[in-house]
């Protein structure tokens, strides 16, 4: 059985589902295959409008959902009103995901759907993922994980399905740019979002702006170091205008979960 076949087998008996959708690689692929397997009338995508994600990501998610013919609704999440999120403990994602999945479960009951699905995959087991604990506690299914799909599989299959997200860079909640136990504020999230949007416009697609008080620590792919240094005057000028005092390039390069290195 091929890899999409394995996923369709996992989806087969789920009947009517809600997909926790972000417009990223994993959830877009899951949404597309769920629609193909279960029919679009039995699949509902729910996207969250949040201060922890750029508005541009939300707009793109809506466009992609429309393109693949998905039914979509938007919910507004207020993570900064969750005490155990705003204070930014190491398990911040647990509190965030728990509240999100509770909201999705209320929609599931109201719409008479059967299950909630998320886009967790096999590679997520390599990283620290407190949100997966919340998903398990609330009975959320992870079909990509159950089908033993890795990120590279999802990219290859997304390309075969002609999904626009097949080569989309990984993206994570903007709160992941702030050191643990430092309070998350709207001001800091806005600064990070503006800085990353600018850097992507310069062609640095896989980028993180990690905030350390007045310092912006830039993580880009090692292959983009030369490009970043060529643009350093533009980058420094713009990021200082945004509100950073110092701008640094992390010589370790882009990697996920780098804030855990200090724990």
Write the layout of secondary structure elements.
Blueprint: H1 3-11, E1 17-21, H2 25-38, E2 43-49, H3 55-67, E3 71-76, H4 83-86, H5 92-111, E4 115-117, H6 130-137, H7 143-146, H8 151-160, H9 186-201, E5 207-212, E6 215-220, H10 225-230, H11 232-242, E7 246-249
Parallel strand pairs: 1-2, 1-4, 2-3, 6-7
Antiparallel strand pairs: 5-6
Helix pairs in contact: 1-2, 5-6, 9-11
Head-to-tail CA distance between termini: 42 Å
CATH architecture of the largest domain: 3-Layer(aba) Sandwich
Question: Number of domains in the coordinates?
Answer: 2
What is the mean pLDDT? 95
Low-confidence stretches: none
The run of helices and strands is: HEHEHEHHEHHHHEEHHE
Structure characteristics:
263 residues; alpha/beta; Rossmann fold; 2 domains; three-stranded mixed sheet; 11 helices; globular
How would you describe this structure to a colleague?
- This protein folds into two domains: 3-160, Rossmann fold (3-Layer(aba) Sandwich), CATH 3.40.50; 174-262.
- The protein has 263 residues and is of the alpha/beta class.
- The chain has helices at 3-11, 25-38, 55-67, 83-86, 92-111, 130-137, 143-146, 151-160, 186-201, 225-230, 232-242; strands at 17-21, 43-49, 71-76, 115-117, 207-212, 215-220, 246-249.
- The protein has eleven helices and seven strands.
- Strand 2, helix 3 and strand 3 form a beta-alpha-beta unit.
- Helix 5 (92-111) runs parallel beside helix 6 and helix 9 (186-201) runs antiparallel to helix 11.
- 44% of the residues lie in helices and 14% in strands.
- 37% of the residues are buried.
- The strands form two sheets. Strands 3-2-1-4 form a four-stranded parallel β-sheet, sandwiched between helices. It has a three-stranded mixed β-sheet with strand order 5-6-7, with helices on one face.
């Amino acid at each position: 059985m091929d890899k999409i076949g394995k996923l369709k087998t996992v989806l087969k008996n789920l009947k009517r589902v809600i997909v926790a959708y972000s417009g990223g690689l994993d959830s877009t692929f899951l949404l597309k295959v769920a629609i193909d397997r279960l029919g679009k009338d039995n699949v509902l995508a729910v996207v969250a409008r949040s201060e922890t994600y750029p508005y541009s990501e939300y707009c793109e998610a809506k466009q992609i959902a429309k393109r693949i013919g998905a039914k979509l609704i938007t919910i507004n999440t207020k993570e900064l009103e969750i005490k155990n999120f705003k204070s930014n403990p190491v398990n911040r994602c647990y509190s965030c995901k728990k509240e999100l999945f509770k909201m999705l479960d209320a929609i599931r009951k109201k719409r008479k759907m059967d299950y909630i699905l998320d886009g967790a995959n096999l590679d997520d087991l390599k990283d620290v993922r407190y949100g997966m604990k919340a998903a398990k506690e609330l009975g959320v299914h992870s079909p990509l994980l159950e089908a033993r799909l890795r990120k590279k599989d999802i990219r290859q299959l997304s390309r075969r399905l002609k999904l626009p997200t097949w080569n989309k860079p990984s993206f994570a909640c903007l709160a992941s740019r702030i050191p643990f136990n430092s309070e998350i504020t709207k001001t800091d999230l806005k600064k990070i979002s503006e800085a990353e949007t600018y850097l992507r416009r310069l062609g640095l697609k896989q980028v993180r702006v990690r905030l350390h008080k007045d310092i912006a620590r830039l993580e880009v792919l090692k292959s983009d170091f030369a490009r970043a240094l060529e643009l350093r005057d533009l980058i420094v000028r713009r990021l200082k205008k945004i509100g950073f005092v110092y701008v640094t390039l992390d010589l370790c390069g882009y990697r996920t979960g780098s804030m855990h290195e200090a724990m």
